[in-house]
User: Which sequence fits this backbone?
């Protein structure tokens, strides 16, 4: 299955990378239709939420959306892996959690979503850019329509 990928390095719509509220605005609520595995998290500040003490979070799209909109956070590093709601994974038994920092897999001719069952991946990269990968062309179009300045990641990698 084809992966549609974009890199967002510059935008007036986001004051800092990565404000997930703005990313979710771009998805027009579609993020609620997924369960999320969030891993490799580094923030500008840590809210009073005990799950940030864990190496990953498994959370519903509605819960994640509520949390994101209630907390103004800068995700310096993080990987948000979106799974169809009917997919269940045992994240405790994953041998390799999706990660951002030091991951050279994004900088290839055809970047891929890290977890084979995930439908989309949003990567917060070093407070400087956001990567968006999706198996759903409709979501990729939503992201690209909202962020006109986003570039195709495969094309960017080949330049």
Assistant:
């Amino acid at each position: 299955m084809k992966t549609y990928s974009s890199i967002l390095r510059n935008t007036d719509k986001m004051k800092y990378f990565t404000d997930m509220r703005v990313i979710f605005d771009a998805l027009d609520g579609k993020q609620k239709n997924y369960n999320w595995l969030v891993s490799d998290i580094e923030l500008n500040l840590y809210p009073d939420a005990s799950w940030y003490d864990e190496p990953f979070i498994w959370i519903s799209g509605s819960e994640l959306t509520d949390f994101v909109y209630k907390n103004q956070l800068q995700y310096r590093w993080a990987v948000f892996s979106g799974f169809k709601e009917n997919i269940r994974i045992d994240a405790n038994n994953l041998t390799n959690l999706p990660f951002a920092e030091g991951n050279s897999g994004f900088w290839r001719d055809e970047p891929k979503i890290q977890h084979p069952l995930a439908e989309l991946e949003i990567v917060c990269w070093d407070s400087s850019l956001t990567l968006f990968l999706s198996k759903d062309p409709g979501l990729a179009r939503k992201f690209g329509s909202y962020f006109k300045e986003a570039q195709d990641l495969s094309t960017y990698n080949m330049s």
The two ends are 24 Å apart (CA to CA). The first helix runs from residue 20 to 27.
